[in-house]
Specification:
Helix 2 (38-51) crosses helix 5 and helix 4 (88-97) crosses helix 5 (112-124). The longest helix has 14 residues, at 38-51. The chain has a single domain (2-19, 33-130), classed as Orthogonal Bundle (Cytochrome Bc1 Complex, Chain D, domain 2), CATH 1.10.760. The protein is built from five helices and no strands. The N and C termini lie far apart (40 Å). It has 136 residues and is an all-alpha fold. The protein has helices spanning 2-10, 38-51, 53-56, 88-97, 112-124.
């Protein structure tokens, strides 16, 4: 079972570094994002540690990890290097719909609300000056 989980995680490389599938449109994106709060970030970290850590590591940098196509996972701590958007909606879509070649969609694995929490956690990995203002 662990090998299956690890294999599936290898396919999740490039959460942000690749473009989202065109199978979903912005109209399909559920209401969100959730407010950027410490509670949401903590919830997002829980989901991240289960679904994302295998490729992106605990610190979000993903150094030394590669999927079968040789594409390194996105460095989630460096939003300036992302090719397909850093807005909450762009991150949500990349996670929910996956990418064309590297990452499967998490639409069936995470509920939309859970994905919004992951979005907030990912944004908390950014340099402080780039992070959204923390809400209450």
């Amino acid at each position: 079972m662990f090998r299956l989980v690890a294999l599936a995680a290898l396919f999740t490389a490039g959460i942000i570094a690749q473009s989202p599938n065109n199978s979903g449109s912005q109209k399909d994106t559920p209401k969100g994002p959730l407010p950027y709060t410490s509670q949401s970030i903590a919830r997002g970290k829980q989901f991240y540690l289960v679904h994302c850590v295998e490729c992106h590591d605990q610190d979000g940098k993903g150094f030394g990890r590669r999927d079968f196509s040789g594409t390194p996972p996105a460095d989630l701590t460096d939003p300036d290097s992302w090719l397909y958007g850093t807005s909450a909606t762009a991150i949500f879509t990349s996670i929910r719909e996956g990418t064309k070649s590297d990452m499967p969609p998490f639409k069936g694995k995470l509920q939309d609300e859970q994905i919004w929490h992951v979005v907030n956690f990912v944004r908390s990995l950014w340099p402080e000056a780039k992070q959204p203002k923390l809400g209450k």
